[in-house]
């Protein structure tokens, strides 16, 4: 069903994130080598690196694209405690003729005192906004009031999550029935059994983000979180990468039933939970319709999940991380290395220890 | 290596070999088994590798530690530290004529016998071997030997000579070390510092010490308990790991006073700690009696002194096998590869994966990054083995103009791929609705046309209490059944169900014929039967049995059918009502259910879920009384709404109910495409303005945009504006005259001027009023084209390099293009411009603006503008 193709990335260290632009014709990668690379897809379908530059003075954790109506804009975040906004400049040099594009830093967001672990642009209909989260447990929401001037970003909201944050996801729904919403995951590994996923919703009356929900059942460190593209559904789907893959649905309880002004109430259901990755799950990503979920985990595999018409989720594909096909017997078996399975009290996590 | 706990080592240079040592040394060769079968006698290490035993060496008893000679050696030269403190050089090679021949068997003997704890070859001078020994009050514990030393002191203690087997071997005894360090102390672990050949880091009894061989009287040391397993990070030579009990300490040699960090303590004592040689900052640790290897991924280069950032450490664990692990070894060159050995000497070879990050592109391909590599994976387009995802389906359907056939509406299900029965039902429903709305409008304009789109539920409601039943004779049978008199509404319902055609004629004949033609024998027979024509039903079944694709069993069914008797207690009745449940085809099943039913109770037909909704509803319209029918329709509607079954649109029509139904369909499938097109087929405006409908439309348009199906999006918008004129965007751009400030467009006089609409983009060239060389308001001439220097509004002359010279060809593609050449265009940035055709041809070979001294790169300013719509690329 799927065929993998290797692309020479030429990063000098581990790649931490891959991100596509709105049309899927451009891609950005970021790495521990402190650089970001931008790739353009040729008409023949090959990827060409058209820009590569040093962005931070530490590992770059994440990179993300703004909607093209705001221009060709990227945001990156790093271990160096900053996030940065980048814009492509054309016409100032002959770069284009050499097949290279030129990116300039528009702003550096320096409010965090610790590593900035994730950065995400808000859905287009909210304007040019972005959210960052950091290891000190604070989600920050910035806005560029003037889309023509990307060097001006104002810090609009600071949400304290009380736990070291590892990932954020905006609810992409543009329906007027849904308020802006952001989900935050924490990779805090201390043995307290606190819930690691919190969901904040914007309240029109107070003009603040307030906690709408906490997923009490998720108590293990969370490495990634992703709302599915809403695609006209009446509910939201949230995928979580923790010690397993989990998929939740959040159905807003009709407004007229709740007291107006308060946060939206949700009926939350867990619709799938898979431990096929054996141990930690690192990333989750939805396809454009929110119908296929891809996850990666400690078993070194990429797995694809899809629901049938009965809303039963199943694995529909397995790919090895190095692109080689998966043999039939590789999923179980004693002779094969399986990563950290069935050991209780596994404490795999970011920030496992930090003394000194 | 007390015989029970084997250790394992990869050869530093011959990377397909490793040694397992417990009481003896066993050399193995690793082979890939990807393309070959497992050879006899070889041990499986992993899915795709196996090991073969090459040789065994049991010459050296009492082994305590082993170290592999670091230079390339075909002989597999090993240093073995023994329980008596002697270090013996031994080999696992078969070739005894090599240059190492002299070395093999050489022994290095300390003055006082005690256990040898550790060995370390100098990475720079391959002849130097450091040995760490237990404490002796009169002796040193760190001895550095030169393996090429020929020097044997004259006074060889007699007992040592006796120990060795023969006279010849006395020449192989070396008793004088190059250096002696650490008097009256114990040495537990050793490693050479790569910074300098003469720096040696040793884990002594209660401290870590750095010995400088250039000046042996001095040493740098720090008191600590973590003295075991000292090892230098191969990527950062100042970073060192050591351990004590369950705790690993990481040291920075530049600030040696205390560990820069200690890792979370393990409940059991550690036995081995090793840096990955192929990847920065990855430390593997193993504890006693454990089957997992714990990995610490230190994401950061040690920062210069003074910066107090906390390093980010990702802790992971791997479980290579179910047994406890005795020891492990990183592969010297293969990325992140490791081999482990268990106490009973089973081995396993595996690779530690990097954390994979991944992303879906809007077109169905997945990109992921594993380590430093990128992989792209695309779904194969022509793969039919698995059901395609809705994203792929919608893309293909958009390309095949799904939803846009507004004349033969039913054809849309064929455009959708003719695979989904629900879509088929939906588009037939919409087709009939459209047909009968037009019909109604013709007959009595403004009367019931809107009712048709409201669905059968509303149609049936509107006819409440006007129908009486009458008994009808079965054709060619002596039986009567209650059939409802068909009023106008019921006829309309039957028409929507497709049973009867347009006109007042209530004959199902044409419908039966079309079913027979499509080979739906069973369904046709059932419909014939429901119309009380059992002879026709039998005839149809016979026809089906004799046709090529037909099932011979249909003859049997026909036979059973012909035996119909009206008698209540007959054997036929009894058998049919039980055996019918075994029929696979739902239509055959309901035929017998109908025949065996009591008068007026048709639940066997009405609630057979496998029968198409339209047939069940048509049946209900024929046989149920008004109140029954209402209840039935109500119930079925709710069922359909709940399930999001598109067949139910027949009942709900394009009403609020229909939106509810469509909402559960979208919730279930994500198919906003069908939802949008369906609602745009003929919904009244208030339904169309429903927030949900607008939201589906918005989502679908957004999808088309993301796929760069801009032409499809534009077509969709045109289609949409037919039903919802308010969705038509207002004129976006006006060109105003430089002098009078009025819009230069003639057509603008009819459109109210939108605010401050003076702006940037212009359209002219409509053939009827093509000559506009001056402002219609003030008659001042329009600006000139930067290339031809003629006022805008004059028809363009052919441009050099342009493709077409004659613009007055027929209504062809060329003509359309030629007219585009007349358009005003200019650059937002430098505000220079001219005729579109001229501009395009200029920028075909120029990067900069044609106006003198303007260096604006007008054509490159917009990245999205350079993207090509995907439809033109698609086949």
TrEMBL record, chain A:
Organism encoding this protein: Neovison vison
Function: As a component of the GATOR2 complex, functions as an activator of the amino acid-sensing branch of the mTORC1 signaling pathway. The GATOR2 complex indirectly activates mTORC1 through the inhibition of the GATOR1 subcomplex. GATOR2 probably acts as an E3 ubiquitin-protein ligase toward GATOR1. In the presence of abundant amino acids, the GATOR2 complex mediates ubiquitination of the NPRL2 core component of the GATOR1 complex, leading to GATOR1 inactivation. In the absence of amino acids, GATOR2 is inhibited, activating the GATOR1 complex.
Record bears the keyword Cell cycle: yes
Classification via PROSITE patterns: WD_REPEATS_2, WD_REPEATS_REGION
Entry keyword 4Fe-4S: no
GO annotation, biological process: cell division; cellular response to amino acid starvation; chromosome segregation; positive regulation of TORC1 signaling; protein transport
Entry's Gene Ontology cellular component terms: kinetochore; lysosomal membrane; nuclear pore outer ring; Seh1-associated complex
Keywords, in A-Z order: Cell cycle, Cell division, Centromere, Chromosome partition, Kinetochore, Lysosome, Mitosis, mRNA transport, Nuclear pore complex, Nucleus, Protein transport, Repeat, Translocation, Transport, WD repeat
Pfam families xrefs: WD40
PANTHER family: NUCLEAR PORE COMPLEX PROTEIN SEC13 / SEH1 FAMILY MEMBER, NUCLEOPORIN SEH1
Location of the region described as Disordered in the Swiss-Prot/TrEMBL record: 324-356
SMART domains, sorted: WD40 (SM00320)
Protein name: Nucleoporin SEH1
WD repeat residues: 8-40, 274-306
Gene: SEH1
Subunit structure: Component of the Nup107-160 subcomplex of the nuclear pore complex (NPC). The Nup107-160 subcomplex includes NUP160, NUP133, NUP107, NUP98, NUP85, NUP43, NUP37, SEH1 and SEC13. The SEH1 subunit appears to be only weakly associated with the Nup107-160 subcomplex. Component of the GATOR2 subcomplex, composed of MIOS, SEC13, SEH1L, WDR24 and WDR59. The GATOR2 complex interacts with CASTOR1 and CASTOR2; the interaction is negatively regulated by arginine. The GATOR2 complex interacts with SESN1, SESN2 and SESN3; the interaction is negatively regulated by amino acids.
Protein family: Belongs to the WD repeat SEC13 family.
GO molecular function: structural molecule activity
Automatic annotation (TrEMBL), chain B:
Keywords (A to Z) from UniProt: Lysosome, Membrane, Metal-binding, Repeat, WD repeat, Zinc, Zinc-finger
UniProt main location, coarse: membrane
SUPFAM superfamilies associated with the record: WD40 repeat-like
A UniProt-annotated Pfam family: MIOS_a-sol
Location(s) in or outside the cell: Lysosome membrane
Gene3D superfamilies, sorted: YVTN repeat-like/Quinoprotein amine dehydrogenase (2.130.10.10)
GO biological process, one term: positive regulation of TORC1 signaling
Domain of life of the native organism: Eukaryota
Gene Ontology CC terms, in alphabetical order: cell junction; cytosol; GATOR2 complex; lysosomal membrane; nucleoplasm
Domain GATOR2 complex protein MIO zinc-ribbon like, first and last residues per copy: 737-859
InterPro entries according to UniProt: MIOS/Sea4, MIOS_a-sol, WD40/YVTN_repeat-like_dom_sf, WD40_repeat_dom_sf, WD40_rpt, Zn_ribbon_mio
Domain MIOS-like alpha-solenoid: 394-623
A GO molecular-function annotation: zinc ion binding
Oligomer status and interactors: Component of the GATOR2 subcomplex, composed of MIOS, SEC13, SEH1L, WDR24 and WDR59. The GATOR2 complex interacts with CASTOR1 and CASTOR2; the interaction is negatively regulated by arginine. CASTOR1 and CASTOR2 convey leucine availability via direct interaction with MIOS. The GATOR2 complex interacts with SESN1, SESN2 and SESN3; the interaction is negatively regulated by amino acids.
Family statement drawn from the similarity comment of this UniProt entry: Belongs to the WD repeat mio family.
Record's function text: As a component of the GATOR2 complex, functions as an activator of the amino acid-sensing branch of the mTORC1 signaling pathway. The GATOR2 complex indirectly activates mTORC1 through the inhibition of the GATOR1 subcomplex. GATOR2 probably acts as an E3 ubiquitin-protein ligase toward GATOR1. In the presence of abundant amino acids, the GATOR2 complex mediates ubiquitination of the NPRL2 core component of the GATOR1 complex, leading to GATOR1 inactivation. In the absence of amino acids, GATOR2 is inhibited, activating the GATOR1 complex.
Name assigned to this protein: GATOR2 complex protein MIOS
Species in which this protein is naturally found: Neovison vison
Name of the encoding gene: MIO
């Amino acid at each position: 069903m799927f065929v993998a193709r290797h692309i020479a990335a030429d990063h000098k260290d581990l790649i931490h994130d891959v991100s596509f632009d709105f049309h899927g014709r451009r891609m950005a990668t970021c790495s521990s080598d402190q650089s970001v690379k931008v790739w353009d897809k040729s008409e023949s379908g090959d990827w060409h690196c058209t820009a590569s530059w040093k962005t931070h003075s530490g590992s770059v954790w994440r990179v993300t694209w703004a909607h093209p109506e705001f221009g060709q804009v990227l945001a990156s975040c790093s271990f160096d405690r900053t996030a940065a906004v980048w814009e492509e400049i054309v016409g100032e040099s002959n770069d284009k003729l050499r097949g290279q594009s030129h990116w300039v830093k528009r702003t550096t967001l320096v409010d965090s005192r610790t590593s900035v672990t994730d950065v995400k642009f808000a859905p287009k209909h909210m304007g040019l906004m972005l959210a960052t989260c950091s290891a000190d447990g604070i989600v920050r929401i910035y806005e560029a009031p003037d889309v023509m001037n990307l060097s001006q970003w104002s810090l609009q909201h600071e949400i304290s999550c009380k736990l070291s944050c590892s990932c954020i996801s905006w609810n992409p729904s543009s329906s007027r029935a849904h308020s802006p919403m952001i989900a935050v995951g924490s990779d805090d590994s201390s043995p307290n059994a606190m819930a690691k996923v919190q969901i904040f919703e914007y309240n029109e009356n107070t003009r603040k983000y307030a906690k709408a929900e906490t997923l009490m059942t998720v108590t293990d460190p969370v490495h990634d979180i992703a709302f599915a593209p809403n695609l006209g559904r009446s509910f939201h789907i949230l995928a979580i990468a923790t010690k397993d893959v989990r998929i939740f649905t959040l159905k807003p309880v009709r407004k007229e039933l709740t007291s107006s002004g308060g946060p939206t109430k949700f009926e939350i259901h867990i619709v799938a939970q898979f431990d096929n990755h054996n141990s930690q799950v690192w990333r989750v990503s939805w396809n454009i319709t929110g119908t296929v979920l891809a996850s990666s985990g400690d078993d070194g595999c990429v797995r694809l999940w899809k629901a049938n018409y009965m809303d039963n989720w199943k694995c529909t594909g397995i790919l090895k991380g190095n692109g080689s096909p998966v043999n039939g017997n590789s999923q179980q078996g004693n002779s094969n290395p399986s990563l950290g399975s069935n050991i209780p009290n596994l404490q795999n996590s970011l920030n496992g220890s930090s003394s000194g | 290596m007390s015989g029970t706990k084997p250790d394992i080592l990869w050869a530093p240079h011959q990377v397909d070999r490793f040694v397992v040592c417990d009481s003896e040394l066993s050399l193995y060769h690793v082979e890939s088994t990807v393309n070959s079968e497992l050879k006899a006698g070889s041990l499986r290490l992993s899915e795709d590798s196996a090991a073969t035993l090459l040789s065994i060496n049991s010459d050296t008893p009492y082994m305590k530690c082993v170290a592999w000679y670091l230079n390339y050696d075909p002989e597999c030269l090993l240093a073995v530290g023994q329980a008596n403190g002697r270090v013996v050089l031994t080999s696992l090679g078969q070739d005894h004529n090599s240059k190492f021949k002299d070395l093999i068997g050489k022994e290095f003997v300390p003055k006082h016998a005690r256990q040898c704890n550790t060995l370390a070859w100098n990475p720079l001078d391959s002849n130097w071997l450091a040995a760490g020994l237990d404490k002796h009050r009169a002796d040193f514990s760190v001895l550095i030997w030169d393996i090429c030393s020929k020097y044997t002191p004259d006074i060889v203690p007699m007992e040592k000579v006796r120990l060795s087997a023969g006279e010849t071997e006395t020449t192989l005894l070396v008793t004088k070390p190059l250096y002696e360090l650490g008097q009256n102390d114990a040495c537990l672990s050793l490693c050479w510092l790569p910074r300098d050949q003469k720096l040696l880091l040793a884990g002594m009894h209660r401290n870590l010490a750095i010995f400088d061989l250039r000046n042996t009287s001095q040493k740098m040391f720090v008191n600590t308990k973590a003295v075991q397993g000292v090892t230098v990070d191969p990527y950062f030579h100042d970073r060192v790991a050591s351990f004590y009990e369950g705790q690993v300490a990481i040291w920075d040699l530049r600030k040696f006073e205390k560990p820069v960090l200690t890792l979370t303590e393990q409940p059991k004592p550690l036995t081995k700690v090793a840096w990955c040689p192929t990847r920065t900052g990855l430390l593997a640790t193993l504890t006693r009696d454990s089957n997992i290897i714990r990995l610490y991924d230190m994401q950061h280069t040690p920062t210069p002194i003074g910066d107090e950032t906390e390093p980010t450490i990702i802790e992971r664990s791997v479980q290579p096998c179910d047994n406890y692990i005795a020891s492990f070894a990183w592969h010297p060159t293969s990325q992140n590869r490791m081999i482990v050995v268990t106490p009973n000497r089973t081995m396993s070879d595996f690779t530690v994966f990097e954390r994979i990050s991944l992303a879906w592109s809007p077109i169905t391909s997945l990109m992921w990054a594993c380590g430093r590599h990128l992989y792209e994976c695309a779904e194969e387009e022509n793969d039919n083995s698995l059901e395609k995802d809705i994203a792929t389906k919608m893309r293909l359907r958009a390309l095949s103009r799904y939803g846009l056939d507004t004349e033969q509406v039913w054809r849309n299900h064929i455009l959708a791929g003719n695979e989904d029965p629900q879509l088929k039902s939906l588009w037939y429903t919409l087709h009939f609705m459209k047909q009968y709305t037009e019909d109604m409008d013709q007959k009595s304009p403004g009367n019931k046309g809107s009712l048709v789109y409201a669905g059968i539920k509303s149609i049936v409601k509107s006819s409440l209490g006007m129908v009486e039943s009458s008994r009808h004779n079965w054709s060619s049978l002596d039986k009567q059944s209650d059939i409802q008199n068909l009023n106008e509404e019921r006829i309309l319902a039957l028409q929507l169900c497709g049973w009867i055609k347009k006109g007042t004629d209530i004959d199902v004949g044409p419908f039966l014929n079309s079913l027979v033609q499509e080979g739906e024998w069973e369904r046709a027979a059932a419909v014939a039967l429901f119309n009380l024509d059992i002879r026709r039903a039998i005839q149809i079944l016979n026809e089906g049995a004799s046709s090529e694709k037909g099932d011979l069993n249909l003859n049997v069914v026909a036979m059973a059918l012909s035996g119909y008797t009206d008698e209540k207690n007959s054997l036929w009745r009894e058998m049919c009502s039980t055996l019918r449940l075994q029929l696979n085809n739902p239509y055959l099943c309901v035929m017998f259910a109908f025949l065996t039913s009591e008068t007026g109770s048709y639940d066997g037909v009405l609630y057979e879920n496998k029968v198409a909704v339209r047939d069940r509803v048509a049946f209900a319209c024929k046989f149920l009384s008004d109140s029954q029918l209402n209840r039935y329709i109500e119930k079925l509607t709710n069922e359909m709404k709940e399930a999001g079954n598109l067949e139910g649109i027949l009942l709900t029509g394009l009403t609020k109910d229909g939106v509810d139904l469509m909402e559960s369909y979208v919730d279930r499938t994500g198919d906003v495409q069908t939802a949008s097109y369906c609602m745009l087929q003929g919904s009244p405006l208030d339904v169309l303005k429903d927030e949900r409908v607008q939201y589906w439309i918005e989502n679908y348009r957004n999808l088309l945009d993301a796929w760069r199906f801009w032409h499809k999006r534009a077509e969709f918008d045109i289609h949409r504006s037919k039903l919802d004129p308010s969705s038509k965007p207002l004129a976006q751009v006006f060109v105003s005259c430089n002098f009078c400030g009025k819009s230069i467009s003639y057509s603008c006089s009819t459109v109210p001027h939108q605010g401050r609409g003076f702006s940037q983009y212009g359209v002219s060239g409509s053939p009827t009023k093509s000559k506009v060389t001056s402002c219609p308001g003030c008659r001042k001439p329009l600006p000139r084209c930067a290339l031809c220097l003629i006022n805008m509004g004059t028809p363009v002359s052919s441009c050099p390099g342009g493709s077409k010279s004659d613009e007055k060809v027929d209504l062809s593609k060329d003509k359309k293009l030629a007219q585009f050449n007349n358009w005003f265009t200019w650059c937002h940035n430098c505000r220079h411009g001219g005729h579109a055709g001229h501009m395009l041809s200029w920028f075909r070979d120029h990067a900069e603006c044609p106006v003198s001294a303007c260096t604006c790169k007008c054509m490159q300013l917009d990245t999205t503008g350079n993207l090509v719509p995907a439809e033109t690329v698609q086949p």
